[in-house]
Specification:
By secondary structure, the chain is an alpha+beta fold. It contains eight helices and eleven strands. The protein has a five-stranded mixed beta sheet with strand order 1-2-9-6-11. Strands 5-10-7-8 form a four-stranded antiparallel beta sheet, with no helix packed on it. It has a two-stranded antiparallel sheet with strand order 3-4.
């Protein structure tokens, strides 16, 4: 059984303000760990007061009566695929090892198109629709900066155009993320995230490693970037556990996660990078004839998570 080693992982905080200088550093970190912190400052800064207010909205929604949350259930035809409220235990991120579903609730918000949500929002969130839209746009801009930085580090050619036991209850089972890049916003004093190290042990991830007044944003590489780089960039398995405290279950833990996905029809073929080619030498090569699309991969992962036939 894989257990926690209890030692916080040393994940670097990188300033992306000069993409041309840090590309190699970013590639080195994520090819080793699959995670990094980026300094929340500069052109793409997401204001901390904005993040704090969204956490307050999140707390207000999740403390609402079940009847209110059910109006936007993920099982509702109005919400759309993989959108809306998930009740406690409805999601099982590690179905091969978990006896029960994840001990968490979630509310999935899909893409805003022309600044408008494409799903019903509960009243507590709908009243702040424009603020949520701005936050989503800010996250998208930061993801684009991260992807540009990775492209530089990979020497990708410029393209013109626009508990400790896995079998016990756990907040979010062991999994890798399905998309390209994930941004994680956390609250101080709410630990629990762990990543699986190359040595096969679980290491906790600090919320604010340098105690900055504006905490950095935690970034992790998703499955698709691993596909696009022949496994050079690591889509690292991670989980969220209950804190080891005297209070059963610990306190409530809130997080805001932005998952960056490509267009559904994007093919999962390795990009033309000398680093990717070198890393993939000797491996079985994916061809255009047998390649999956981003939609194929997402559907496969969702089917396993929600036990869909």
């Amino acid at each position: 059984m894989t257990v926690s080693n209890g030692l916080p992982l040393d994940i670097p905080v990188i300033d992306l303000s000069d993409e041309s200088k840090v590309g190699k550093d970013v590639v080195e970190v994520v090819s080793r760990l699959g995670f990094l912190f980026v300094k929340n400052a500069g052109e793409d800064e997401i204001l901390q007061e904005h993040i704090n207010h969204l956490f307050k909205l999140s707390q207000a929604f999740f403390s609402s009566p079940v009847a209110v949350k059910e109006t936007c259930s993920i099982n509702s035809n109005k919400s759309g695929k993989n959108k809306g409220w998930l009740s406690m235990g409805e999601e099982t991120l590690d179905p091969g090892n978990q006896k029960r579903g994840d001990v968490k609730e979630a509310f999935n918000i899909g893409e805003f198109i022309d600044g408008k949500a494409q799903q019903p929002l509960p009243e507590v969130l709908a009243a702040h629709h424009d603020e949520i839209a701005r936050f989503q746009a800010s996250c998208h801009a930061l993801c684009n900066r991260i992807l540009r930085t990775l492209a530089r580090g990979l020497e990708y050619p410029t393209v013109s155009g626009d508990t400790d036991s896995l079998t016990e209850d756990i907040r979010a089972g062991a999994h890798s993320d399905y998309g390209s890049v994930t941004l994680l916003f956390q609250l101080p004093g709410q630990p629990g995230l762990e990543i699986l190290t190359p040595q096969g042990t679980w290491s906790p991830v600090p919320v604010n490693p340098n105690n900055d007044p504006t905490p950095p944003v935690l970034v992790n590489i998703g499955d698709l970037l691993s596909y696009w780089t022949n496994g050079l960039l690591k889509s690292t398995v991670h989980r969220v556990i209950f804190p080891n405290t005297g209070k059963k279950g610990g306190d409530d833990r809130y997080s805001i996660v932005y998952f960056c996905h490509p267009q559904d029809d994007e093919k999962l073929l390795p990009v033309p990078s000398p680093l990717v080619e070198q890393h993939g030498a000797g491996k079985a090569q994916v061809t255009a004839e047998n390649v999956m699309t981003a939609r194929d991969h997402l559907n496969n992962r969702l089917a396993a998570t929600y036990k869909l036939s």
